[in-house]
Write a structure and sequence with these properties.
mainly alpha; Serine Threonine Protein Phosphatase 5, Tetratricopeptide repeat; about 80% helix; elongated
């Protein structure tokens, strides 16, 4: 009898649970389904958006490389047009890189316009600092032949500080400008800093050595 009672109690309990589940499902089933669909839809939307962003970035990268190929092949006008288009509707970092490269191409034909473009890029606080420093250095190099020592120093002096990764090139630009301005003591000091720096790139260090020799010969003559 006890076994029959236990079986009856279990069956009743099972029926109650089923009735409770049906009641809960009737009340909350649509909400549960809706929530599940929202979760699935959200995941699908995120995946789709990520794919779309990646596709756009890849397309911008392809356009940037194509513009570099055009520039390398001597098609400067076409390359500038492509880079300007990329600045307008590119994705990710490519609009900034396109702007920087376009300024470099301008330097081949119009140094004044290129210097202005590099200065504007360097002043743009929305651009990462390393890229702004590169633009400042590019303007300094152009001003060696197109400006004064003071103009070069205005852009390069901060970059020439010990520990700055661009210090060797910044010192070279300032040294060349000083030599051109017949400021031999400044030129000797700047090229000496490069020559004495064991971390100076080989090419920059070799050019510094050549300039020190030239300055020494000029002083001896």
């Amino acid at each position: 009898m006890t076994n029959n009672n236990d079986l009856f109690i279990r069956e009743v309990d099972e029926e109650l649970r089923n009735d409770q589940f049906k009641s809960i499902w009737r009340r909350f089933g649509p909400l549960i389904i809706g929530g599940a669909l929202l979760v699935v839809g959200g995941v699908a939307g995120w995946v789709g958006y990520d794919y779309w962003q990646t596709s756009r970035a890849n397309a911008s990268g392809d356009r940037f490389l194509a513009a570099l190929d055009q520039a390398r092949d001597g098609n400067t006008a076409e390359a500038l047009t492509a880079l300007q288009s990329l600045q307008a509707d590119g994705t990710g970092a490519y609009p900034m890189l396109a702007k920087l490269r376009a300024a470099g191409l301008q330097a081949e034909t119009d140094a004044k316009a290129a210097i202005a473009a590099f200065d504007a890029f360097a002043a743009d606080t929305s651009v990462p600092q390393p890229l702004r420093d590169i633009a400042r250095l590019r303007a300094a190099y152009l001003l060696v032949d197109n400006g004064t020592y003071e103009e070069v120093a205005q852009r390069a002096e901060l970059l020439s500080a010990d520990g700055n990764p661009l210090r060797h090139s910044a010192r070279e630009a300032m040294g060349l400008a000083a030599w051109k301005a017949q400021r031999d003591d400044d030129a000797r000091r700047l090229f000496g800093q490069i020559a004495d720096d064991p971390q100076a790139p080989r090419g920059v260090a070799e050019r510094a050595g050549i300039m020190l020799a030239l300055i020494g010969e000029a002083a001896a003559s």
